[in-house]
Design goal:
about 55% helix
Length: about 90
């Protein structure tokens, strides 16, 4: 049960970090997602923003980041998973 709490906390922190990074540093143009400046950041294994160099150039998201962005972040599935995991954790305690 303690592991379930740790996973819930980790997923919550990951969700907040991922949405914060994506809202500031990921842009969409012509149906594709890009990092707003370079060097590119990452959404896996932990969301990190793009580099501080600030080259005004778009960098396409790599395959893993694109998968996370399109299927977990844009669809709000990550938020739903987080809420379901917390609900399950709370139900196990009662």
């Amino acid at each position: 049960m303690f592991i379930l709490i740790l996973v819930s906390v980790y997923l919550t922190a990951y969700t907040v970090a991922a949405y914060t990074i994506c809202s500031k540093y990921v842009v969409e143009q012509s149906g594709k997602a890009y990092w707003s400046s370079g060097p590119a950041g990452s959404l896996f294994p932990w969301p990190i923003k793009n580099g501080e160099i600030g080259i005004p150039m778009l960098f396409e998201l790599n395959g893993t980041d694109l998968l996370i962005y399109n299927y977990l972040i844009k669809t709000y599935l990550l938020v739903i998973l987080c809420a379901v995991l917390w609900a399950f954790t709370i139900l196990l305690f009662y």
